[in-house]
Amino acid sequence: MKAYILIKDSIPTGKAIVAAAHASLAMYLKFQDHPDVIAWLAGSFAKVICKVSDNEFEAAKGYEDNIVLTESSLGGIEVALAFRPREEWTKEFQFFKLYK
Length: 100
Hints:
Layout lengths: L1 E7 L4 H19 L3 H8 L3 E7 L1 H7 L5 E6 L5 E7 L7 H4 L2 E2 L2
Parallel strand pairs: 1-2
Antiparallel strand pairs: 1-4, 2-5, 3-4
């Protein structure tokens, strides 16, 4: 079981790191009572952080159980998208570029 966090590739690295941290916490707070989150916390607590294009980001918003994060210091633009952890992910998630 793992959670995905998508960060726009146009976000500067320093802001991206902060966005990933905020996204992880925001996702937990939004879905903390969901059985998958409870199981995730009791298990590996795995997260996958990916760097995505604006188009990939917009398309990913269509998947269920997510939360969008904005950054006030960048004019309130959307910077990250965090998804509730789950066992199975659609094929699209396997092709997102890992953030390195």
